[in-house]
Amino acid sequence: MVPVIEYVYTFKVRLLHNSSARETLLLSEWVGMGDRLRYCCLKAAVRQVTLDTWMELLVSSAALSKKEMRNNLSERLIDFLYGLQPVQYQDAMDKIQTTWIQAINDHDIVVRAVFALIKNVRLVGFWRNLLDALTTWLKRRFDSPQLPSLRTIHQHFAKDWEPYVELSRVECFTNTPTAVPVPLHVALFEFGDFVLQACINATQSSPLLWRIIRRTSPYFFSEDSEVVMSSEALDGDPEFWIRGHLIVKYQPADQGGAVVTEETQIKYQHCRDHPRTEGWVHYEDPQHNYYRRTICTVSGKLFLWGDPICSLYHQLLQTTLFYCAPGNKDSDVGDILTVSEMQQLPVETLVLVLCSDHLRIPEGERTLLRCLNKMIFGLNVYHLGPDAQLPRSHSGAVEDVTRLYRSVRWCFIPLDNIIQTLRWTPRTTGTRT
Hints:
Elements: H1 2-10, H2 21-30, H3 35-46, H4 54-62, H5 67-81, H6 89-95, H7 107-120, H8 124-141, H9 150-157, E1 164-173, E2 184-191, E3 194-200, E4 208-214, E5 241-250, E6 260-269, E7 281-282, E8 295-305, H10 308-320, H11 331-344, H12 347-354, H13 365-377, H14 398-406, H15 415-424
Antiparallel strand pairs: 1-8, 2-3, 3-4, 4-7, 5-6, 5-8
C-alpha cells in the first residue's frame, strides 16, 4: 500500500520492493492507477518471474496503454521461456494457464507469446491447450460463436491471394551463350504486390537463390538486396508469413549431366516489428555448381498466410489433430476422438491441415485414410461384414470429399486398403480417390 500512497501524493515510485511488487501491482490495478506505477511494479515482478506467475504478468503487461511499455515487458517474459529445459516442460504445462490468452487484446503480443510457447514447451498436451486458447481468442476477435474457416481468417487479412499454392513444375533455364553466363531471375509465384523470386547464376558459389521482393522494387532484376531501414517502410504491407517445402531438380557440373534432386524449406516473415533485408537465401548446398547453360525445375507447396496468427493456428492443428486421444487408449477410441475433431472443423480448414507436409500422424497415411473413411462413410464401416461393405451414403458435397481424399499420399497406402475404400464409394456420386 505504501508505494501506491506515495505515488498518489508525489507521482514518484521510490519505496517499491521486489518482494512486494506483485502485490502492489494487484492493488494498483484494483484502484485503477495509471501506467507508470503499474509499469514499475511489473518491471520488478518480471525480474522474479516463475512458471506460476508468467501468464498473470503477461496479461497485466498487455493491459498497459503504452505500446513501448507492453513490448518491453513482454519481450522479457518471452526471453524467460527460451531458458526452459526439457525437464521443466511438464511443470510448464501444469502451471501456465493458457486460457488467459483470450484476455489479451494486443495481437502482436499474442503472436509472439504463442510462437514462443510452441517452440519452448514441446508437449503435445500443452499444444492442445494452446490450440483451445487460440481458438477462443480467434472467436472473440471475430465476434462469432463458431470459428470461421482458416481460409476465411486468412482472407480477412489478405484478400489478394489464396493461403495455399502448389507449384507443380516451374522451369528455369538460361538462354545466354555458354561462354558468357548471366544471372537469370525467375518468378516462381506472384501474390498481391509480392513475388517469390529465384535467381540462377552459374558463376557463383551459390548458384540458386530465392527471395521475396515487391513487384515495383528497383532491385527486381538485380542481385542487390532491397534493405528495409525501418518498420515505417512496411506500414502499408500485410504482415504475412510464408512456410513451404520445395523440390529443386538440376544438373550440377560435377555429375556428368546427371539430374540431382534437392529439397529445401522456405520460411519467411514479413512483419513490422522485425523489418529485415529482402535478400537472397540459399536454396541448397552451395558446393554444387551448375552448367553454364543451366536447366532446373522447381516444384513444391507454399502456405502464404496473410497474418502470423493464421500460421500459428495451422501449425497447432497439424501437430495435434491426430493426437487428441489419451496415450493409453486403443486405436478405435483414438479414431473416434480424431474423427469427432475433424468433423468440428470447416472443410476448408481441414483440407489446409491435411495437405501440409508437416502433418503429424501416428502410423502415417494408413491412419489418415482410416479416419477419412470413418468420417465420410460412417464410424462403423470397419466393423461390418463384407456384404455390408457396399456403396454407402457419404456426408458432404462431392467436391469437398474429393478435396479431402486428394490430401492422402496414396503411394504409401497398401493396395488392399485402396480397394476397400473404393468398394465403399458409390460410382453414382462421382467421388474419386
